[in-house]
């Protein structure tokens, strides 16, 4: 299970949880699901965490959602200071698979 943060080019932030990060990010990028991420174009993966159970992932998602914007930005910038779209890193899918092993 994954907790992830997507962002728009203007740094509007969305926090979500999924069991299939590849598919979910594809949905965000294509604007398939109407709602917040489609409206604000939060289609750039800027942060994610892997968890070994749905309960832990959902708990962490709620924790992050409850953080101030400043703390969310700190969380992103700890590992991704320039807010790169992690999906543009050519080996990210392989890295994701290794994270799951």
Account of the 3D structure:
The protein is an alpha+beta fold. The chain has a single domain (about 1-100), classed as GIY-YIG endonuclease (3-Layer(aba) Sandwich), CATH 3.40.1440. The protein has five helices and three strands. Strand 1 (about 1-5) and strand 2 form a beta hairpin. The chain is globular, with a radius of gyration of 13 Å. It holds the Pfam family GIY-YIG. It comes from Candidatus Abawacabacteria bacterium RBG_16_42_10. Belongs to the UPF0213 family. This is GIY-YIG domain-containing protein.
Give me the count of strands.
3
- The CATH superfamily is known as GIY-YIG endonuclease
Named CATH architecture: 3-Layer(aba) Sandwich
Relative strand content: 15-25%
Major β-sheet strand ordering: 2-1-3
- How many distinct helices? 5
Shape: globular
At CATH level 3, the topology is GIY-YIG endonuclease
Oligomeric category: single chain
Q: Tell me roughly what share of residues is in helical segments.
A: 40-55%
- Taken in chain order, the helices and strands follow as EEHHEHHH
Largest sheet: 3 strands, antiparallel
Distance between the termini: 12 Å
Short description:
This protein is of the alpha+beta class. It has helices at 21-30, 36-40, 54-65, 69-79, 92-100; strands spanning 2-7, 13-18, 44-50. The mean pLDDT is 90.
Considering the chains and any ligands shown, give keywords for the structure.
three-stranded antiparallel β-sheet; GIY-YIG endonuclease; 101 residues; alpha+beta
How are the SSEs ordered, and which strands pair?
Layout lengths: L1 E6 L5 E6 L2 H10 L5 H5 L3 E7 L3 H12 L3 H11 L12 H9 L1
Antiparallel strand pairs: 1-2, 1-3
Organism: Candidatus Abawacabacteria bacterium RBG_16_42_10
Protein name: GIY-YIG domain-containing protein
Family: Belongs to the UPF0213 family.
